[in-house]
Amino acid sequence: MVEWPTPLSANPSLQQQRPVDVVPLIEFDISLPSFKKMEMKLNAEILNEQNSRFIETHKPEYHFLAQSLEKKGVQVNDVIKKLQELQVAIPSWALGAGGTRFGRFSYQGEPASLENKISDVGIIHALTNTAGAISLHIPWDIPKDYNAIKELAASLDIKFDAVNSNTFQDQPSMNKSYRFGSLCNTDSSVREIAIQHNLEVIDTGKKLGSNSLTVWLADGSNFPGQQNFQEALQNTKESLKHIYKSMPDDWKLFIEYKPYEPNFYSTVIQDWGTSLMLAEGCGQRAYTLVDLGHHLPNTNIEQIVATLMMKGKLGGFHFNDSKYGDDDLTVGSVKPYALFLIWNELVYGMENNPNNPSPAWMIDASHNIKDPLEDLLQSLEAIQIAYAQALLVDQKGLQEAQKQQDATLCQEILQDAYRTDVRPLLREARLCSSAAIEPIASYRSLNIRNQLIKERGLHTVASGL
Ligand code: AOS
Ligand code: ZN
Ligand code: ZN
């Protein structure tokens, strides 16, 4: 394996020894025309050059794996094609460092504007061919010039995925507060402000070519007795119905659930059942959104996925990982087997539930310490690994073993797929899409973070969180 360079940010003395201007393999100019040129260069020439370092190792590994899979009856070309087609949206808030209630450590060269954020997604997409969409948060990401933003995104082959409303922070223009909830509030004038905000978010999305709205509510209570559960749910339902009716006819509404945080005694939409009930109350184009981190420990998420897909109601999906309760860790970093089991149900549902639309995939993670772009590259890799493993599951054999009630064989079949090192398939898919065989190694050897620091400065602060 080729050695990876250390990230410069990890070693301050190294930063001094290697000033940014002595290592520019590529010039980053984020102003549109030259950035566009750079992207073309990054895709065609630079990535080819990068790939030439890895191709000799990759090819025999891929051929060996492809051959053994073909022998088992796997159509390897179909798997590669599906990997190439999978596109996962990057949320604008994941491009800067996240934080906790104890503080936030900005990362060097963070994107300070919407243009910067889109450019960052462009870098990830060029390296992986898997991040062809961005999910915006309003009001953090309201474009100043819609045409310029659309042009920039199009030049990087990036679409606008679901737009996200924010009724968990008061805005300066508000003369009321979300302190005791937004769509659930006992005060109808607060509910009205929150509804109007969602309608403005839809308008912003319309102008960008987005066609879905994600609603995540912080609404809930911190103390027993603080909130009338029934009234809060009823108010939320009426507010959501209003928003749903105001959406264009081809839009979808994704309703996210979360058992706790920032409220710690109760949340109004605490689980998938509540979300599904609200979605069904709104109408056909309202769906449940599953965020992996929004479950109490040991919840059987794969079963939730199966149930929702059977009902045709799994609309959105947020990837992340967690050990205890945080929902911000890198996908696959803690529970890769659980991720595989979830993907197994997703693949089953995509093949057997035509009533369920293709879910809108998004990474929803942003934490304190890693280079956010490297973290997203790792998350995309983990998503694709679990997806590829799930595509290898011998579905016919599994169904037969289930019929025979052969629990041992069922486990053998699942784990045979899970224990396959599918990374050569991912590398091949990227190679066929003119992306990077090894995205993180190339990101590092191209000194991309250094170029961003050069452009944006060491102490930029991402808008939003
Ligand atoms: C919050 O926990 C939810 O996961 C949201 O989907 C999202 O992270 C939030 O809207 C970002 O601010
Ligand atoms: Zn989420
Ligand atoms: Zn979350």
TrEMBL record:
One of its GO terms (molecular function) is L-rhamnose isomerase activity. It comes from Flagellimonas maritima. Gene3D superfamilies: Divalent-metal-dependent TIM barrel enzymes. Keywords: Isomerase, Manganese, Metal-binding. This is Putative sugar isomerase. Its EC number is 5.3.1.-, 5.3.1.14. InterPro entries: L-rhamnose_isomerase (IPR050337), Xyl_isomerase-like_sf (IPR036237).
